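request received
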Amino acid sequence: MLRAEALECSGCRQACHVMLYSDTESKLFGKTPIKHIVLMQMRFDGLLGFPGGLVKPSEETLEAGLSRELLEEIGIALPISVEDHVESRFAPTSSPSSSSSSSSRLIIHFYVKKIEEELIREVEKAAASTAADHGLEVLGMVRVPLYTLKSGAGLSFFLSHSFIGNARSQLVRSLLRLHLVSPNELHKALAQTLQMHARSAEDLQEALAFTEVQKRHF
Ligand code: APR
Ligand code: MG
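response:
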């Protein structure tokens, strides 16, 4: 859906999120180049997502609304422009009934913005100190590990976490589009993520069984 089309839906709720990223010369353990820093956040609901939130198109432009949300969540009102816009689409709906009434439909606008590494560091500091939402709606900013270590650790483990809405696919598509990770590497990482999911399910079963026993004692 085009940005302009989305705005025509006056009954829809609209939200904007942004992927902030930079290049970097930093090396993990002094040897593995991390190449790029991509910022996400751990949300209040335990899910990973991008900074941003609900905007009010009747009072502000999408981009001004996004900057306002950034001030709340990362402590800096980074200017976002129409050129940073990537896509607009309806948020995936959990129940079919909510998709039928347009008043409850949510349109998600996604942006990406490349900034200097120094600014990424400032964002990380402000997010944990002056940002109003810190510790409340936002539990912390996180960097996405884009590398895969010899052990297989890195991107695949990160992708196995739980994400809000379509944030995982927004991340994967952006990594490809911006050439931050090669298609081959990403494909391998995702295949490993799927394998890990099976192992996680076993861990969870075990933890569940453990709490089942504990429950009986209290
Ligand atoms: N893809 C799809 N949907 C998303 C994504 C994403 N990547 N990121 C967020 N959403 C959805 C969320 O589920 C939420 O319903 O967009 C909506 C708004 O995004 P938030 O960043 O959660 O909104 P924010 O304005 O920061 O918080 C407002 O949202 O869940 C409520 O009560 C909570 O006060 C909070 C309010
Ligand atoms: Mg938010």
